Amino acid sequence: MKTIVFAGGLALLGTLLGTRLAILILVKKGYGQLIRDDGPTSHHVKRGTPTMGGLVIITAVVLAYFGSHLITFTAPSASALLVLFLFTGLGVVGFLDDYIKIRKQRSLGLRSKAKIAGQSIVAILFALASLQFPDERGITPASPAISFLRDIEWLQLPLILVIIWVMLLIAAASNGVNLTDGLDGLASGACVMIFGAYTLVNIWQYNQSCAYTASAGPKCYEVRDPYDLAVVAVALAGACFGFLWWNAEPAKIFMGDTGSLSLGGALAAMAIFTRTELLLVILGGLLVIEVMSVILQVGFFKLTGGRRLFKMSPIHHHFELLNWAQVTIVMRFWIIAGLCVAAGLGIFYAEWVAGT
Question: How far is CA 37 from the centre of its chain?
């Protein structure tokens, strides 16, 4: 447990202290947020707020992971390194998007094709690598089967479909965090809860792993490196928690696409490696609500010839235009996120209890 404690603590301190330094540097360079003219007018006061805070989150997580292993003299695992690869890889794509917006002073960063291409390359490399590196039991970080609470054996996919499935999961999770990141502290607070949940899931899977004869039961878990995945998960939760100090209303810094794409990728990686891909829909229920509000808005607009289902999407903007205070929306959406996380953990534990 020492590695887990050190990773969480170092990541928390990393963003808590490092974000302050980042704000000073970004303000000095004039790297401020651009605000959409068609968005809520209340957001115009945020114009010029430093962005690309995701760089601090990424740096803190990576340093906390390797620092905790250095302190405890333990070796990194293939699973954790692959999560960090996807996390930082999508962060690079997000950084390029943020940087182009700031440099060219426009709300559009990378062209859509370039952004999709960058995300796809990282996702494909991640998918291919995740099916390699078997341990002594032959368990690879990812599985060719679709999973809910564990692999669904009759849903085994061929390689090409595995790659497509992984790409869809990564796109869905990263877009979910990206769309949720529209109010001060909303996305970072939700991510603290979800990554905290995955920390508990990984610790439980480690304690009930099929790799250990003493704890192996009829419903043990065939997951590679669950303990080290918990180290990454708690580092991600700690980094988001520390960042929230500066990102809560009124935000002194935004995570930008650098943060939202990387955090979404890490969520997808956690779901894939813990064999809880479909459970992420419940654990990340708030993200699903945000994405679905956009899908419903666009679909309703096209089907009805220009009518709107919501005043504005994602749905948190709808409540802003109903004159809800921003802090009220964030707090209530955090409650929804917490309920979704509690429901997901309850289902995860109930399945194990029912099978023992």
Answer: 28
In the chain, helix, strand, coil percent, each to 5?
A: 70, 5, 30
**Residues 258-267 pLDDT 10s:** 999 999 999 9
Q: Are 271 and 45 in contact (CB under 8 A)?
A: no
Respond yes or no on whether the N-terminal peptide bond of residue 134 is cis (omega within 30° of 0).
no
* Residue matched to tokens 């999709």: 116
Tokens in use for 99? 């940087």
CA Rg value for the chain: 20
SS3 for 279-318, per residue? Answer: CHHHHCHHHHHHHHHHHHHHHHHHHCCCCCCCCCCCHHHH
Cβ atoms of 284 and 191 closer than 8 Å: no
The per-residue pLDDT for range 128-177, each reduced to its tens digit, is 999 999 988 899 999 999 999 999 988 999 999 999 999 999 999 999 99
Q: What SS3 state is found at 206?
A: helix
Backbone angles phi, psi at 221, to 5 degrees: -105, 130
- Tokens representing 211 are 């790799």
What distance, in Å, lies between the first and last C-alpha atoms of the chain?
A: 25
The token pair at 351 is 């399945």
Partners of 50 in the β-ladder: 32
Q: Is the peptide bond before 158 cis (omega within 30 degrees of 0)?
A: no
> 0.90 cut: is pTM over it?
yes
- Closest to 141 measured CA to CA, from 198, 61, 222: 222
Q: Give me the residue label for tokens 């995955």.
A: 198
32: CB partners within 8 A, 6+ apart: 26, 47, 48, 49, 50, 51, 102
Q: 48: alpha, beta or left, given left = phi > 0 and alpha = psi -120 to 50?
A: left
Judge contact between 243 and 53, C-beta under 8 A: yes
Q: How far is CA 96 from the centre of its chain?
A: 18
